[in-house]
Amino acid sequence: MSAGNPELPEKMISDIEQTIVVTGGSRGIGRALCAAFSRPKTAVYFNYCCPDETGDQTASQIIAAGGIARGMQIDVASEAEVSRFFKTIVGETGKIDVLVNNAGITRDNLLIRMKSDDWRKVIDVNLGGVFHCTREAARTMIQKRAGSIINITSIAGVAGNAGQANYAAAKAGIIGFTKSMARELASRAVTVNAIAPGYIETDMTSHLADGVKSEIISQIPLGRAGSPTDVAGLAVFLASDAARYITGQVIHVNGGMYM
Ligand code: NAP
């Protein structure tokens, strides 16, 4: 592990009641997801692509809430790295209760200026990553006949967005993937849903000019940007017993920006 509890003593492993996996957990919405799922007897595994102090900060929040933090540098676009990540998780805890596919990137440009590399990179991370991680988690969830998979899509995947053809295509792909997985895994009591955030204040949106931010906020009926915790609260609900009859849904968290 490169962030979190270094070695898990046998006693700690045998005490684990819930195993949560969050991709892209080092910052933004992913960190809020890790924190929201953290509680005693819960192991929160998360990954990220760039090794820096952000992974440690997420791990500290998980540990402060009483959880067990396990952070690894894993590129979700890499089949081999994702396989190693899930082997570690299943090897340590023997199960996966919740997978949140959250890792995502943007490489925005108008289509006529978009480089093929930026097209491919966004599809590989945002959609390929969901495929790799879901395939790994589903194997374990099918055996256990239980589990919840939550995919973070975007308002852009539903409404489209000029300058984000690559990102919107990947996020729309996640919606089709979510519905297909919901149908495929329902007979094993595994639910699969998507959350479509609107404009959430994170590093991903911090580069926007102030004028652009105010223009976006003017289109939000609730009159403010969302926070990562607004998204995390819904994910915790979708993974709970209270949501066990909800599958194949795309739930919007956008302050009313898209209805
Ligand atoms: P963020 O602050 O930029 O954080 C992105 C996270 O993804 C980081 O932890 C990053 O790790 C990780 N990541 C990026 N590429 C990765 C890869 N190849 N493998 C593993 N991890 C990777 O973004 P965010 O705003 O929290 O977004 C989280 C999710 O919500 C994304 O799927 C995004 O598309 C979606 N979303 C966001 C908004 C918004 O307004 N913010 C709106 C709709 C949807 P490093 O720290 O190592 O870079």
Descriptive key words:
globular, single chain, alpha/beta, binds NADP nicotinamide-adenine-dinucleotide phosphate, 16% strand, 47% helix, 259 residues
Summarize the structure.
The protein is α/β, with parallel strands linked by helices. Helices cover 47% and strands 16% of the residues. Strand 5, helix 5 and strand 6 form a beta-alpha-beta unit.
Provide the fold topology.
Blueprint: E1 3-4, H1 10-15, E2 18-22, H2 28-37, E3 42-48, H3 53-64, E4 68-73, H4 79-93, E5 98-101, H5 116-144, E6 147-152, H6 155-159, H7 165-185, E7 190-197, H8 203-206, H9 210-218, H10 228-238, E8 250-253
Helix pairs in contact: 2-3, 2-10, 4-5, 5-7
The structure holds NADP nicotinamide-adenine-dinucleotide phosphate.
The biggest sheet, with number of strands, parallel, antiparallel or mixed sense and barrel status, is:
8 strands, mixed
Overall pLDDT level: 96
SS-based structural class? alpha/beta
Radius of gyration: 18 Å
Bound ligands? NADP nicotinamide-adenine-dinucleotide phosphate
Low-confidence residue ranges: none
Rough outline? globular
Instruction: Give the oligomeric state.
Output: single chain
What's the helical proportion of residues? Answer: 40-55%
Order of strands across the main sheet? 1-4-3-2-5-6-7-8
Number of strands: 8
Supply the number of helical segments: 10
Distance between the termini: 42 Å
How much of the sequence lies in strands comes to 15-25%
The arrangement of helices and strands along the chain is: EHEHEHEHEHEHHEHHHE
